[in-house]
Amino acid sequence: MELGIKRTLKGNLNGKGLTFGTWNIRSINDKEGELIKEFENIDLDILAITETKKKGKQTVELQNGHIMILSGVQNEKRAQAGVGCIIKSTLAKFVTKWDTISGIFIMVQLRLEDKNTIHILILYGPNEDEKAELKYKFWDEVTEVVDSLNGDIIVLGDLNGRVGIQDYESGDDIGKNGEAIRNNNGTRIIEFCIQNYLLIMNTFFRHKEIHQYTREVKSRNEKSIIDYVLVCKRLRRYIKDVRVKRGPEINSDHYLVLAKTG
């Protein structure tokens, strides 16, 4: 099983390793062509997208054999939230199933050639000012799904929380690189990681600030780290880098967060 994970995380893609990321795109409407262009320019294998504002659930076959999975609110509701995932054609054959919880959560299962399984969870977390009951409900639902999975886990998405850096409270589930601020949502993310043996990989690699902050509103001089790559501890050794990539543009106040294996 270990060999299968290593081969797949090295990509089975001409040895270049696996490149994946997460991006809050602030609506996919009228942006699909631009998004696919950026996906191919960066040569991504998997891209989680959040705040798509796309209603309903659908799987779309894109140009060059890529697939896009989308989940949003019900059609009768106002368009909001929404999550999705674009998977490169060379990995599409490994997708065995996917499931959703409303417009804030997708789980994609990849079954490897040796029958080992990796689950990719795409999340869009509640805002910091949401009611506590909604936050508890969200994390309880996600935890319930995680508890039901048998295999390795990668979590991608805009979790709307600021986790700060490693301290006594967080333990080794978070690294020493990032921003100093931790808010209520950030504490919830840390608790989720501790409970499920996940690592907050953004915080394990040292980079300049411009490659750390995932959201920036220049007009209000605001910047924060709220988009994350989380992985189960067994996959830690394969993750060679996680950073913000500022080149890609999709008319959003969030930057693409990029992870590479090797």
Automatic annotation (TrEMBL):
Stored Pfam families: Exo_endo_phos
SUPFAM superfamilies xref list: DNase I-like
Domain Endonuclease/exonuclease/phosphatase: 21-237
Superkingdom assignment: Eukaryota
Gene Ontology molecular function: any one: catalytic activity
PANTHER family: BUCENTAUR RELATED, CRANIOFACIAL DEVELOPMENT PROTEIN 2-LIKE
Stated name of the protein: Craniofacial development protein 2-like
